[in-house]
Amino acid sequence: MSDEQRPHTFTGTFRMHEGVRSRFLASEHDVIVYLPPGYEEDIERRYPVLYMQDGQNLFDASTSFAGEWRLDEAAEQMIAAGLVAPLIIVGVYNAGAYRVDEYTPTRDSAKRAGGKADRYGRMLVEELKPFIDSEYRTLPEPRSTGIGGSSLGGLVSLYLALKYSGIFWNVAVLSPSVWWDNRFIVRRVRALNAAPPLRVWLSTGTAEGDGVVAGARRVRDALVAKGWTEGESLHYEEIEGGRHSESAWADVAPAMLHFLYPATR
Predict the structure, then answer these.
(1) Nearest to residue 222, comparing CAs of 259, 176, 254?
(2) Where is 107: in which H helix or E strand?
(3) Does residue 208 lie within any of the structural domains?
(4) How many domains in the chain?
(5) What whole-number distance in Å separates Cα of residue 119 and Cα of residue 126?
(6) pTM score > 0.90 for this model?
(7) Confidence at residue 237, expressed as pLDDT on a 0 to 100 scale
């Protein structure tokens, strides 16, 4: 894995690992790592980590295929304001043509695609996380480790958080593709015996299209039925006028970071 400083179009300190290979996947993934203020100076301090999907859309419009989340600006501002704990954000670039397969837990017969999320999860948990924990000063325990994304990235993040609840604790699920495979993710939540120790942010916009809000509500209701508590282990929000876009998720990002990584918990 190569390591280099990113250009100054980014806000904050970044390192880039290009062409990361996996024994579980045919694809390679670029990985970008945001380091919080003070990381270079306070060499004894260790930090929580958030693993985010669609990494090329998080920090800079020049690397994005659909706009940016401005997640670096959100983190810098919220940390500086004392609202969010300094954290490391690992942006895993999607692999283009492989994205749909890797971000979906089942094969959707209607789409004739999907079903590689388990392999993608093994890459994250068995290869990438150990590398990040060895390369950076992380707090590696579950309570300090999160996973998140939007759209299909939100779908795969919730699916993998449920599968690896002993690895992840904080889960960011923005505008998830609940429709995939006849709402598989709702059935997956309903199949749980009880709620694992996960803290979930779930949000969707009211202007994302037909059935989107109804799908998010089904996920919320399934989570609550299994033991999540709104306002405590679950934050659910419908963003009035929110669209299915990076700019909409950028508007939500500061509050999402504050809920999952508050400066004092």
Answers:
(1) 176
(2) strand 107-108
(3) yes
(4) 1
(5) 10
(6) yes
(7) 96
